[in-house]
């Protein structure tokens, strides 16, 4: 970290980008942090005062425009967080915008990093793994969740390893990220750029503007607080789909560790997620959220499964844990408590982002916070 004087974070007003930007400024007040964002994600504009308070410079720019990078000035590290991050993006319409942002935007970011001899962190996704192959892993149905019962190439008792086969379709979103990974690795191999690739499972935490198609954990907390209905969609509509979840601060802790060895970054890929210990099914997420927010909301079922949904996804963190001596620290209950605290603090501005029609009851004004164990 000692050689890094300026960090450029693309998508720096988004959930992950802004959280990393603020955390870097908190820990390294002498480091200049520039957040570049075109503010297309609804709610990203709410992050601007927060970035300003933390001393993060905001650059209104678009990663699709090569010239927009110039205003950032010199930088030593680029963290690529600009994206259309929805796995549903491009379905039933043209996927070209997904590739323009996620693939061409990353190529432009790599070019900008090359001009400054900068290192490159690519935030990839577990969605690079093919959908049919993941859904073909043998499973059983437990009380509140589906469980994988088969351990094979790329599937350990902990979850998916980096050896999971890559053959098959993965969504336009997943394809745009896998293509970006491959190109980033070429810059590492041919231009000597220090590149590291973190294939993240579900990331969450305060400041995530949850939508139905992206940001499920914060969506759950927001809907419970504002008294709005939710749906269990797919796999029979019972809410047994499972994901591991990782608090964005745990991701920050990892990137800080990785920054201690920038000169050895060679384009390696690491699966990064909460792992089995920090995982929830939708039904379990409902139970924890109900307890913390202190209310129930109407829940309906849509049995039909989307073509891009997964029954289970769990990360095997073994490679990243042993390379960087890192482990997730925040449990599902702790994560949901953190998100709820943020919702209570920013209730008025968040209320304006909620769908107007779904309101069933008034938001809780008493800041109910029941303690649940297992952090
Ligand atoms: N959130 C997750 O669960 C998760 C999981 C795995 C990987 N990731 C990856 O992490 C990164 C950040 O995701 P996030 O959850 O913060 O999403 P987000 O939508 O909150 O943030 C993305 C930001 O990029 C900005 N943006 C979009 N198009 C842009 C463009 N053309 N130019 C500049 N800015 C643009 C948006 O306005 C938004 O502020 C993405 O690369 C995503 O693929 C996220």
What does this entry show, briefly?
This protein has 375 residues and is an alpha/beta fold.
What does the model show?
The protein has one domain: Rossmann fold (3-Layer(aba) Sandwich). By secondary structure, the chain is of the alpha/beta class. Helix 6 packs across helix 8 and helix 8 crosses helix 10. The strands form four sheets. It has a seven-stranded parallel sheet with strand order 3-2-1-4-5-8-12, sandwiched between helices. Strands 9, 11, 13 and 15 form a four-stranded mixed sheet that branches. The longest helix is centred in the middle third of the chain and has 21 residues. The C terminus is likely disordered. Helices cover 34% and strands 17% of the residues. It is built from eleven helices and 15 strands. It is globular, with a radius of gyration of 20 Å.
CATH topology name, in short, is Rossmann fold
Please describe the biggest sheet, giving its number of strands, its sense, and whether it closes into a barrel.
Answer: 7 strands, parallel
Chain-averaged pLDDT: 94
Summed up, the domain count is 1
> Beta fraction of the residues?
15-25%
Strand order of the largest sheet: 3-2-1-4-5-8-12
Number of strands: 15
- Helical segment count: 11
Give the ligands present.
Answer: nicotinamide-adenine-dinucleotide
Supply the CATH superfamily name. Answer: NAD(P)-binding Rossmann-like Domain
Distance between the termini: 30 Å
The low-confidence parts are 370-375
Principal-axis shape: globular
Q: What order do the helices and strands follow? A: EHEHEEHEHEEHEEHEEHEEHEEHHH
For the record, the CATH architecture stands as 3-Layer(aba) Sandwich
What share of the residues lie within helices?
A: 25-40%
The CATH class: Alpha Beta
Task: Give Rg in angstroms.
Answer: 20 Å
Give the helix/strand class: alpha/beta
């Amino acid at each position: 970290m000692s050689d890094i004087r300026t960090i450029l974070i693309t998508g720096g007003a988004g959930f992950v980008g802004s959280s990393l930007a603020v955390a870097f400024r908190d820990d390294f007040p002498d480091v200049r942090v520039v957040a570049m964002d075109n503010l297309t994600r609804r709610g990203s504009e709410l992050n601007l005062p927060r970035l300003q308070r933390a001393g993060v410079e905001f650059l209104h720019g678009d990663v699709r425009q090569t010239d927009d990078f110039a205003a950032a000035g010199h930088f030593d590290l680029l963290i690529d967080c600009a994206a259309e991050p929805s796995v549903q993006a491009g379905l039933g319409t043209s996927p070209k915008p997904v590739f323009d942002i996620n693939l061409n935007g990353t190529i432009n970011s790599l070019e900008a990093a090359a001009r400054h001899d900068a290192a490159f962190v690519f935030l990839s996704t577990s969605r690079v793994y093919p959908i049919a192959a993941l859904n073909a892993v043998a499973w059983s149905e437990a009380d509140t969740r589906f469980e994988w019962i088969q351990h094979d190439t790329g599937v350990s008792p902990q979850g998916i390893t980096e050896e999971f086969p890559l053959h098959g379709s993965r969504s336009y979103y997943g394809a745009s990220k896998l293509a970006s990974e491959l190109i980033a690795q070429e810059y590492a191999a041919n231009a000597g750029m220090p590149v590291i690739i973190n294939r993240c499972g579900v990331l969450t935490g305060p400041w995530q503007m949850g939508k139905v198609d992206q940001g499920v954990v914060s969506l759950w907390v927001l809907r419970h607080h504002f008294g709005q209905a939710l749906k269990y969609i797919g796999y029979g509509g019972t809410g047994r789909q499972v994901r591991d979840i990782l608090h964005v601060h745990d991701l920050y802790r990892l990137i800080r560790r990785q920054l201690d060895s920038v000169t050895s970054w060679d384009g390696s890929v690491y699966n990064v997620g909460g792992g089995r210990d920090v995982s929830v099914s939708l039904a379990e997420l409902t139970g924890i959220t109900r307890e913390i927010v202190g209310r129930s909301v109407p829940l309906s079922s849509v049995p039909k499964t989307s073509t891009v949904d997964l029954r289970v996804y769990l990360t095997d963190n073994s490679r990243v844990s042993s390379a960087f001596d890192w482990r997730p620290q925040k449990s599902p209950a702790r994560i949901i408590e953190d998100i709820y605290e943020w919702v209570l603090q920013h209730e008025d501005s968040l209320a304006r982002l909620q769908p107007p029609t779904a309101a069933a009851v008034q938001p809780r004004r008493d800041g109910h916070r029941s303690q649940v164990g297992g952090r």
